[in-house]
Task: structure prediction
Amino acid sequence: MSAPETPPSAAYDSAFLKACRREPVPHTPVWFMRQAGRSLPEYRKVREGIPMLESCMRPELVTEITLQPVRRHNVDAAIYYSDIVVPLKAIGVDLDIRPGVGPVVEKPIRTRADLAQLRDLTPEDVSYVTEAIGLLTRELGPTPLIGFAGAPFTLASYLVEGGPSRTYENAKAMMYGDPQLWADLLDRLAEITAVFLKVQIEAGASAVQLFDSWAGALAPVDYRRSVLPASAKVFKAVEGYGVPRIHFGVGCGELLKLMGEAGADVVGVDWRVPLDEAARRVGPGKALQGNLDPTVLFASTDAVEAKTREVLDSAEGLEGHVFNLGHGVMPSTDPDALTRLVEYVHTQTAR
Ligand code: CP3
Result:
């Protein structure tokens, strides 16, 4: 399938998309990973009694939840409300998202016969995504919408382990012990992920983020050999749309260069590596996103501002900077602290 250059959207001249393209910006754009979610009372209210995965399949509800943080915080971009396991659910994988736990897979994928059950994703499988993004882009006007997907390694970690893991022992056992099965699994996931991102872009998403949240568990040599090819395939598949591609993982300081090389236009950085050092590691030609420690938001306003100032100072001179947290908003965060943070970054960086 060829990837047509989509016509410039209403969001084309937004600060967020300009920063991703490394163009001059009126202020540093801000959004937060997990900005939609449990930190907001209005989210908890509309989600009451509705299981997580079901909520992702209701276009009106998805639209409302995606818009909530935009209304409240004046962030520079919306992120589509969904989850990384939605495309797997859509092809019939028996999984659920358990509150306080995360994705749990009923029958983990450990053998070639298990792998055969992962069928292709078609746009019709996720028609609710197309519908919700249609509604959203109309409501958002010039505010960009970020689509997203889980990267092959992070999806594989849930599928092979059967749920969240600290050690990834089953996934790594497959990676080291049966490299052909592992490569085939990641390639399968890359195809599914590519379709899922294309659906979002064709429906109107004006940037995409590939979450390889748990890739930090890997040594660079293993990432390069056993994971990068699959992530690169995903990025390649969406290259022709002219839509910025963001790549993020936690604890990936040693992988930043490789994550850029996989095909990202913007590399997301967690709080462990200062942005100036991250820029040296990533090299020229890419924007950076990040990287305030999300737990800083539990400190006083003065402390939040001082730590934010440090992030902005280390971003001085970057080719492009999108302000974000180093990982997702924690559920117990005071939403007013987030609103104040957006305002602070905007005023501090106004040009
Ligand atoms: O605002 C946004 O960022 C958009 C929505 C979003 C969700 N999940 C909604 C969600 C996004 C971008 C994700 C991505 C996601 N999901 C990742 C990558 C990002 C990251 O945090 O590293 C991962 C690893 C997952 C898998 C997953 N889903 C986890 C670990 C959890 C948390 C489990 C828990 O209860 O603590 C989920 C559930 C989930 N996804 C929630 C939300 C708002 C919370 C569940 C709820 O509200 O009932």
Notes: The mean pLDDT is 97. Residues 33-38, 47, 52, 79, 81, 83-84, 97, 99-103, 148, 211, 213, 328 surround coproporphyrinogen III (CB under 6 Å).
